[in-house]
Amino acid sequence: MDWQVLTRELSLYLESQVRVGLFGSGVGLSLVLGFGVAYACYYLSSIAKKPQLVASNDRFCRFLEEYCPVVTETYYPTIWCWEGRVQTLLRPFITSRPQVQYRNELIKTADGGQISLDWFDNNDSLYYPDARTRPTVLLLPGLTGTSKESYILHMIHQSETLGYRCVVFNNRGIAGEDLLTPRTYCAANTEDLEAVIHHVHSLHPSAPFMAAGVSMGGHRQMLGKLFDMDLVMKARTVREFDKQFTSVMFGYRTIDDYYEDASPCRKLKSVGIPVLCLNSVDDVFSPGHAIPVETAKQNANVALVLTSCGGHIGFLEGIWPRKCTYMDRVFKQFVQAVFEHGNKIFSM
User: Residue 243 gets which letter from DSSP?
Assistant: First the structure.
């Protein structure tokens, strides 16, 4: 996009919308035009930027540049709400909620609990009419998130257009399901996820399979037997909640022990399959200084896409960001790249 053309178009638009008689003279129009031009120049020079692509493996980089080009394109966040906290707060209210018809499945866990899976089978898929070989995307919502979240619905919509099947992993005790055991979500525990992966793969062993997670995954009657829920509910920060609840539930000696075990810094070195991570450096929960860039560079299977703006699961773009976000476009291109050209990741 040519910023000079955009600036000129913005000036012409403002001139057609603002009356010359503002404040009784043309001074008001000049101020508005001057502010508009200055804001456009600031936006195009400081806000709209290409993301930083971090990857130690040149072949992985070339694969992304060819089959997932959105990671190299300039990201233009919504011009009137580009700041991280604003994007984070507005996304749930602004973005649309595509209609998705789910098929629910409850699976039992070894400790007597249950996990709710919401399937979008995409039986009308034109590209993959055979359900046995239809690519499957496992979607992992964020903390307290479910299959009803707008970002999950958009990811399913993107997958539908490509002909893929989706299954959403709802963490225990949410999505309207009863919590059968005093155990919920822990960022360092992957037993439930492993059970879901094995279950899905056993149902469709011939289908290509990958997962996409967003951010990080609470009922009180069961938990009250083991925890002082009144004290827990008085927590005013995430750290206070984890100290009184999550770290205690999973047997950590201190909150710092839990956070150290849950930190991705300790996990990135052992990643054995290609992983693409999208994060904004102005993310209010995962800010730029906390992103393990140097650790990621030590693993050829890991690539980071770091945008300057976007907030936490925001990535709004366009004048009125109701539909597709930058995150949606990254998801769609990368999923398609893996399913259709995955054999080329380390052979380019």
Answer: I
Q: Which residues in 43-70 are b (16+ Cβ under 10 Å) and which e?
A: bbeebbeebebbbebeebbebbeebbeb
Count of Cβ atoms closer than 10 Å to residue 218 Cβ? 16
Count of other CB atoms within 10 angstroms of residue 292: 18
Q: What is the mean pLDDT of residues 61-85?
A: 95
* Cβ(32)–Cβ(19) below 8 Å: no
As a whole number of Å, the end-to-end CA separation of the chain is 30
Residue 52: CB partners within 8 Å, gap ≥ 6?
304, 305, 306, 307
Residue range 76-97: mean pLDDT, rounded:
92
Under a CB-based contact definition with an 8 Å cutoff, are residues 192 and 109 in contact?
yes
Residues 6+ apart with CB under 8 A from 49: 74, 75, 307, 308
Q: In what order do the strands lie in the sheet with 114-120?
A: 103-108, 114-120, 165-170, 136-140, 209-213
Q: Active site includes 121?
A: no
Residue 55: predicted pLDDT: 93
Whether 230 is catalytic is no
Kindly give, in sequence order, each residue whose CB lies less than 8 Å from that of residue 124, ignoring residues fewer than 6 positions away: none
Instruction: Report the alpha-carbon distance of residue 346 to residue 61 in Å, rounded.
Output: 10
pTM, to two decimals: 0.79
- From 242, 283, 308, 328, the catalytic residue: 283
C-alpha 117, offset from chain centre: 19
Q: Does residue 283 carry a catalytic annotation?
A: yes
Per annotation, catalytic residue among 215, 261, 263, 286: 215
